[in-house]
Amino acid sequence: MLWVLMLSVPFPYIATTAGWWTAELGRQPWLVYGLFRTADGGSPQVSAGDVVFTTLGFVGLYLALGMLFLFQVLREVSRGPLGKPSPSAAAPAQAEPAPAVSNGARPEETMAGSGAKLSR
Amino acid sequence: MEALWFAIVAGMLAVYTVLDGFDFGVGILHRLVARTDEERRTVFAAIGPVWDGNEVWLVAAGGVLFLAFPRVYASAFSGFYLALMLVLWLLILRGVAIESRSRLEDPLWRDFWDAIFSLASLLLAFVLGVALANVVRGVPLDAGGSFFIPLFTDFRPGTRPGVFDWYTALVGIFTVCALAGHGALYLVWKTNGPVQARSRLWAGRAWLAVLPLWLATTLATAWLRPDIFGNLWRRPWLLGFVVLMAGGAAAVFRFLRRGRELAAFLSSAAFLLGLLGATLAGVYPVWLRSTVDPSQSLTATNSAAGTYGLQVALAWVTAGLLLAGGYFVNLFRATRGKVDVRAGAYHE
C-alpha cells in the first residue's frame, strides 16, 4: 500500500494551486468583492507590451526554478532512503518518507532557519 | 496626522535600508572576502538568521504606504512597473541562490550560486539607490496623478526622464559603495580570522570611495533640487539628521581604526539613517514630485487616506512595530557573538 503514498507527491501542489484558482477566479469580475471591479483596477499607463515582457520573464524564471526543484527532488530520490548506497525496492518500510524530505542520516544538511541556530 | 504617517513610512524605509543594506553589502563583497568554502559558509552563516527578516521591512513599508497614502502607492507601483519587476526578479534570484548553494557539494555548483548571489546583491543595492534618486528627482506625473516611466530615455533628468539617468546612476553607485562598506563592517563585527581581516580591508576601501561619491551626489542633488536644501534650512531641527550623517561617517573611520567593531557598524547605520532622514525630511511633504508640473505632485496631504482610518491604524501600527522591534532585539541577542561554521551551519 505504501506505493500509494509515493504516488501522492503531486497532490499538495495540485491542492494549493487549485485553492488559489478558486479564490482568484471565483471572485471575478470583482477585485474586491462587491466593491471594486477588476476592469476598474487595471493600470492605464502600463502597456500590453510591458505586461507581455514581464509575463515572459516570470515564465522563464519559474521554468528555470521548476527544473531546479525537479533536479533536486530527483537527486534526493535517486540517493535512496537513509543513506543507503543504492536505492532498493526491497526496503519498503524505510522508503516510506516522502522523497523530498531529507532524512536523519544527513543531519548536517540543514535548512537556512535551523542552520542559523547552529551558527551561534 | 499626515506628517506623522509620512514619518512612519519614511522611518520604515530607513530601517529597511540599514537592515537589508548590510545583507546586500555582504553579498557584494562575498566573493572578495571569502575564498574557501568554509569562509564562504561563514559569510552565509553571518546573515543566515537575519536576512529574510530584514527583507520583510520592505514589504511592511509597502503595506503601510498602501494603508496611509493609497494614491502614492497606486501611482508609484504602476509607474515604476518595470523597475519593480526587476527588483522582484533580483530578490527571487538572491533568495534562491542563498538556499540552493548548500544543496550540492560540487564546487562549480557552489561557485555558480555564489556568483548569482553577489550579482543580485550588487544590482539590488544599485536599484535601491536609483529608486531613492527617482523620488528625489521626480517623475512625469500627469493631472490624474498617474505616470509611467520607461527604464531609460536619454539618460538626462529632464521632464521626461527614465528610471536610469546620470543622476540616478550616480546615486546608485554611491549606494553600492555605501552598502558595501556597511556590509563589510557587519562582517568585521560578526566574523573572525581571514574573513574578518579581508572585510576590514574592504570596509576601508569602500568607505574611501563613499566620501567623494557622497560629495558628488550631494552636489548633484543641490544642482537638481536646490529646494531640498532650502527646506533643511527652513526647518532647522532637520539639521539633526545632517549631524547624525556626518557624525556617523566620521565615527566609522575612528572606530574602524581603533578596532571597535560593533561601534563602527552602528556608526555606519547612523550614517545611513541620517542620510535617508535628511533626504526624506527634505522632500517632505512631497512623495512624488511631478517633473511636468510641480502642482501635480502627490504630497502627504493630497494622497493620504481618511483621517479616521489613519487614527485607527496608528494604534495598530504602533503595536505591530513594537512586536517587530521586540522580535529583532531578541533575534540579534539570540545570534550574538561571532559565527562559527564548524558547528555545522550552511554545511554539506
Protein described:
The complex is a heterodimer of chains A (120) and B (348). Chain A is mostly helical. Chain A has five helices and two strands; from the N terminus they run H-H-E-E-H-H-H. Chain A has a two-stranded antiparallel ribbon. Residues 87-120 of chain A have low confidence and may be disordered. Chain B is mostly helical. Helices cover 74% and strands 1% of the residues of chain B. The longest helix of chain B is centred in the first third of the chain and has 32 residues, at 2-33. The termini of chain B are far apart. Chain A binds chain B through residues 43-47, 50, 53-54, 57, 61, 65, 68, 72, 75, 106, 108-113, 115-120, and chain B through 45-46, 48-49, 52, 77-79, 81-82, 85, 89, 92-93, 96, 98-100, 102-104, 146-148, 334-335, 337, 339-341, 343-348.
